[in-house]
Input
Amino acid sequence: MAQPIYKRIMLKLSGQALEGEEGRGGIDFATVGKFCDEVAEVARLGVEIGLVVGGGNIFRGAQTEKSGLDRPTGDYMGMLATVINSLALQGSLEERGIITRVMSAIEMPPIAERYIRRRATRHLDKGRVVIFAAGTGNPFFTTDTAAALRANEIGAQVLMKATRVDGVYSTDPKKDNSAVKYDTLTFDEVLTRQLKVIDATAISLCRENSLPVLVFNLTHSGNLLKAVLGETMGTLVKGE
Output
């Protein structure tokens, strides 16, 4: 069997990815299980995996615009939603025999370790999947930015953003049949064309640290394995 081309990766999942196909919100544990099957398969190859999950299936900070809550309060609520999702992923992975640690940017000792970079890298060195919860711990930053930040901190070789589409398109392929899929893009192209790959703060952080970003469809079984084995798929965003 081919060998992985990456030793350490950061995988970013959206909260909506945990909803299941019906998209009713909340957590669909059958869907979580499918994702965890993919992650477990890659972990058993010796790939060190960091994981960041959003919280949009439970609560999004942007929902506060019409609620009367201020933005920081809404963002903190969204951070707590990511903790719930992280615990769901942890439970599912450990059912599959994969040792995990949830590390939170907000202190909550009974359920998660406080994020400390050296401790996180030590867990990864030991082959544990580390799930980074509560975003950056600060309002006004997305979980995309949290994934980029943690990926750079832990020395990941690539940030993999798992989506429901097979890469980055010129326009929304669900609304425009003429949308063109890009196989590769530069960081500057993503920013200047305002492509909705990952938020601008995250892209800028990856550009500054030469961290490539792979956008791919995780809903197709086997795609995560193909990605770590170096098969051409999705859209790779990198430097010049």
Observations:
- The mean pLDDT is 92.
- Residues 71 and 187 are 29 Å apart (CA to CA).
- The chain has seven helices and eleven strands.
- The radius of gyration is 17 Å.
